[in-house]
Design a protein that fits this description.
Elements (H helix, E strand, L loop, with lengths): L5 H4 L14 H8 L8 H9 L10 H17 L17
Length: about 90
């Protein structure tokens, strides 16, 4: 170690009459992250949320969907993997 700092290493912590020693918890709180703008993250998330209105199927799309469901019904004994897209109304 550098000889210039040898005496500093062995010094005790300074004590100040105006400032009593803090607990480790209070000292840690000084360095913990904080939200400078309360609610900002929630507002950004809400703005970024995608919302669409419910789309009505055309008659041709309904017929195609019914045909697909009929084919799926025939294959049920084989336990096919199915991917379904459906509309979920926005709660807000």
């Amino acid at each position: 170690m550098d000889e210039r700092y040898y005496n500093i290493k062995h010094l005790s912590r300074p004590q100040y009459d105006d400032f009593p020693p803090m607990s480790a918890h209070d000292r840690a709180a000084q360095f913990s992250p904080f939200a400078a703008l309360t609610g900002y993250d929630e507002a950004v998330s809400e703005t970024a949320r995608l919302t669409d209105s419910r789309r009505e199927l055309t008659e041709d799309e309904t017929d195609e969907l019914n045909a697909m469901l009929g084919r799926l019904k025939e294959k049920l004994p084989y336990c096919p993997d199915v991917t379904v897209t459906y509309f979920l109304p926005d709660a807000r």
